[in-house]
């Protein structure tokens, strides 16, 4: 079996250079790295990963917990995280919680048992996770998408409350006053709850009463939108605009409105949140709040790995800028001669 000494001799480099390439490849010049890779292939050298873990007490893995693999917003942030991790010689171990708060703790403990070096999490309730799992979180950890000022665990995200405020303000500026919110379950997402708080604050500042019946919580997913929209539109005074707490729910709402014979935005305006790639490809193109999700993922990995490699200097809280992207799914209110509620939309 080939050894590191054989690789060094074949590549005409020192044993220390080969060791540096195996442990911190980003610190090796490209020409040297190419010679070492060619030598490893030529002599059939296979890196003993278990031996490295024993000697360094590092697995060179970054654990990641996300709520779902079905929403592309998390795919984009994962790509940013993985690009940063790969650049620094780390692999990513991914766990999908399916928006299940009970599963999150189990997955975190599972990743810790796998001895990940650092952990990035998007969870339903970061405060609850900190209370339950803090004794186990003795490695650098970062909450992604949630921002918690002064919390003992680092976080990277946007101001979700302000994003909800800006989405609501846009619809109010267009003249909509019966403004509903299609919210992802607050129990499954603190981001949805914070966006709702922004919706409430904007209504309050504009002097409008909050009508709880205009807020419908639903499980995340397109398949749950039809029933939620039916509940909103069967009111005696249905809304003229809907703010959805993510783009998938907004797109599901537009589909449900079309099925009920309504046109977006002529009859009902719709705003989403995230700006996933296909938000600009649906018809009408979706007005939404854009999050810089790739950069959020990259920075989450950077914060975690900087703490790991440089010694934990305490929590960091990075709040990135969001942007209202106005497209074709919103328009000024059109006064209707008859209420929508008279049409009797079917409840599935």
TrEMBL record:
Keywords: DNA-binding, Transcription, Transcription regulation. Coiled coil: none annotated. InterPro entries: HTH_LacI (IPR000843), LacI/GalR-like_sensor (IPR046335), Lambda_DNA-bd_dom_sf (IPR010982), Peripla_BP_I (IPR028082). Residues 2-56 form the HTH lacI-type domain. One of its GO terms (molecular function) is transcription cis-regulatory region binding. PANTHER family: HTH-TYPE TRANSCRIPTIONAL REGULATOR GALS, LACI-RELATED TRANSCRIPTIONAL REPRESSOR. This is Transcriptional regulator, LacI family. It comes from Solidesulfovibrio fructosivorans JJ].
């Amino acid at each position: 079996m080939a050894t590191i000494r054989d690789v060094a001799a074949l590549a005409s480099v020192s044993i220390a250079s080969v060791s540096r390439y195996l442990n911190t490849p980003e610190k090796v010049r490209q020409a040297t790295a190419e010679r070492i890779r060619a030598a490893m292939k030529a002599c059939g050298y296979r890196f003993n990963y278990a031996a490295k873990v024993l000697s360094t007490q590092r697995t060179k893995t970054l654990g990641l917990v996300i709520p779902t693999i079905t929403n592309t917003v998390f795919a984009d942030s994962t790509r940013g995280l993985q690009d940063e991790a790969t650049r620094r010689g780390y692999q990513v171990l991914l766990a999908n919680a399916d928006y299940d708060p009970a599963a999150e703790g189990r997955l975190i403990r599972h990743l810790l048992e796998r001895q990940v070096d650092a952990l990035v999490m998007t969870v339903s309730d970061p405060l609850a996770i900190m209370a339950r799992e803090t004794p186990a979180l003795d490695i650098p950890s970062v909450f992604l998408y949630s921002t918690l000022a002064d919390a003992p665990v680092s976080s990277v995200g946007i101001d979700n409350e302000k994003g909800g405020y800006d989405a609501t303000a846009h619809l109010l500026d267009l003249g909509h006053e019966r403004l509903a919110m299609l919210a992802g379950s607050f129990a499954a997402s603190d981001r949805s709850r914070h966006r709702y708080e922004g919706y409430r604050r904007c209504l309050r500042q504009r002097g409008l009463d909050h009508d709880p019946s205009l807020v419908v919580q639903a499980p995340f997913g397109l398949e749950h939108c039809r029933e939620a929209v039916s509940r909103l539109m069967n009111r005696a005074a249905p809304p003229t605009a809907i703010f959805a707490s993510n783009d998938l729910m907004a797109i599901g709402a537009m589909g449900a409105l079309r099925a009920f014979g309504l046109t977006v935005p002529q009859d009902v305006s719709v705003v989403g949140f995230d700006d996933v790639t296909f938000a600009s490809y649906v018809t009408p193109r979706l007005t939404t709040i854009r999050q810089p999700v790739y950069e959020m993922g990259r920075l989450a990995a950077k914060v975690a790995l900087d703490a790991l490699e440089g010694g934990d200097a305490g929590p960091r809280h990075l709040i990135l800028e969001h942007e209202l992207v106005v497209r074709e799914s919103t328009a000024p209110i059109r006064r209707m001669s008859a209420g929508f509620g008279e049409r009797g939309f079917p409840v599935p």
